[in-house]
Write a structure and sequence with these properties.
With 208 residues, the protein is mostly helical. The chain folds into 3 domains: 64 residues, lambda repressor-like DNA-binding domains (434 Repressor (Amino-terminal Domain)); 66 residues; 65 residues, no CATH class. It is 81% helix and 0% strand. It is built from 10 helices and no strands.
Amino acid sequence: MDIGNKLYELRKNQNLSQEEVAEKLNVTRQTISKWETNQSTPDLDKIVPLCELYGITADFLLQGTVDSRAKETNSIENTLRKEKAKVISISVFLYFLSIIWIIISEALEETNENVQAGVFLLICAVATVYLIYKLMGMPKEIKEKDEKKVSAYKAIDNIVSLLFTLLYLVVSFSTYAWGITWIIWIIYALVIEIIHSILKMKENSHEE
């Protein structure tokens, strides 16, 4: 693989645009584009900043030597993704468990409504605390990510999550249709995916 293709793949793996890389290296976007299309090669004084930005060695960039640091980084990132998936799965299971509790307690027709709501909220609280604690406790990824993009995603997710939580509680407590209102969370997941897809499409269009 030539240098241009390497630089392109490395940038894509870091989820960076040409403008962002250019800003970090104090060059123009056109310069980054020329590097990635092999119209020109990076000057010597840009090799080290490039390697630091992408977490690789000069040997790997110039000669294709396997970079143990890059391998280690990818391994850590994969571990983080797996751990995150496990945490989210457990939290979702607890949320579903809270719904199952409401369905069972209503079927028995002997459980006090306050007890029903209390146990339901307790399970939801445990799921939420576990989710937040685990995700916040995870080590940060080695590579520097696009902070603006990450913060924008988090802000949107938090707002949508808050709105759907309020909607779920209001609808559930006003109708007591606990066996049906869980569908709101499916709608929530779909809305989040749609929003993320729209944001990614915009990012791709900006890069082009």
